[in-house]
Amino acid sequence: MIKYHPDHNQLLQFARGEAEPAWALLIAAHVDMCPHCQDELDSITEKLSEQLLPEASLATTDISFDSMMFDIMKLEPIETETVIPEKHFLEWEGRQFELPRALRRVATKTESWTKLVGKLWQAPVDLGDMGKGHFIYMEKGGSVPEHTHRGNELTLVINGEFEDGHRCYDTGDFILMNQDNTHMPVSNHDDGCLVFSFVDQPLHFTSGLARLLNPFSHLFFK
Amino acid sequence: MLVGMSVTKEQARVREPKECANEMSDCLRKVAEQRCRVSFSTLFSFFAPRVKSYALRQIGNDALAMELVQDTMTNVWQKAHLFNQEKGSPSTWIFTIARNIRFDMLRKQQNRKEDICSDDLWPVLVEQTADPGEVDIEEQTTLDQVGEYLDKLPAKQQVVIEAIYVKGKSQQEVADELQIPLGTVKSRTRLALQRLREILKEHD
Description:
The structure holds 2 protein chains of 2 kinds.
Chain A: H1 8-15, H2 21-33, H3 35-52, H4 64-73, E1 89-92, E2 95-98, E3 114-116, E4 120-126, E5 132-138, E6 147-149, E7 153-160, E8 162-163, E9 168-169, E10 174-177, E11 193-199, E12 203-205
Antiparallel strand pairs in A: 1-2, 3-4, 4-5, 5-11, 6-12, 7-10, 7-11, 8-9
Helix pairs in contact in A: 1-3, 2-3
Chain B: H1 2-5, H2 9-14, H3 21-34, H4 37-59, H5 62-78, H6 90-109, H7 118-121, H8 143-151, H9 155-166, H10 171-178, H11 182-202
Helix pairs in contact in B: 3-4, 4-5, 4-6, 5-6, 9-11, 10-11
């Protein structure tokens, strides 16, 4: 069951089209998976449309409207959409995971899986100017070394469950971590756990051998 | 007939979008089914000035605001068949179209090429299509390998790197422990990281 959602302000910003691109992508993917947030977003959007399209101001008495209207009506209707390449399922070791709609286009830019330490796999996703996102798969017992965050870490659970020493997360959960949070994600679920994650600054590993990774942490999950 | 189809601003100023949702829904249906020009002119008269004032507030540039109005109303004319009354009111639908176009305009202005587009976020005008994408294959360095690479460093550099990055000691502590000058610790660290970076690049 989904327990962790974007808060109302994050949804509001998203609905206004003013959320940071990476946030918007993760929020959209969460909304695809979460009927509760879908309803809330619909009602926010309806209210916004009432507020933002209330009435025409005096500044809009524009003579060029008429010609615009006639120009538009010369156009033919568009019945079929152009086909956008999409990836509906992500494969890992022969298993298939259905992706939320919002991730299907960017998921076409997924690179191959790489095994990291400790039953942990990552597949980078090229997000263009936003940088990179990562699909991370934790096999049962797989964990990410304990780390804190220099910026924000956004995570969406695509399939499965994991815990991080503080809380348990389930399919569809939307998780925001920042410099105030130190955690060590681990999946004890029989089927492991697939997440999509975006960090805007490299992770900072805080314990054991993993500290060795810090000078190169931009290579992992970022 | 031209007179009857022109923009009637007085009418647009008095009425709330909510009050005429049914009428506007009918208009959208007629545009979708019959390319009804009278219905479109009703929609246009009502919504174009509203979208314009929204666009002006958001963008603050008249030419761009008019571009947004034109793109929004073009979508209304060409894609009216995608409107679904059960999913929301005409004004919500048209607002989302305008919001999506503004979002994409903003991204374009910021010169973002392969960024997300509004269709990913709010699929208001998109019909779902399936097409499995190509997957690039690229070798990546693993965490395991970084450990192995460490062995490739000269012994003196290894000691310093392990002390600092694995045991979490400060450079001064390492200097004291090894009884070498701080400057030497710094230069060994720098050289070691440089070498590791080169090794990582070679294996990339």
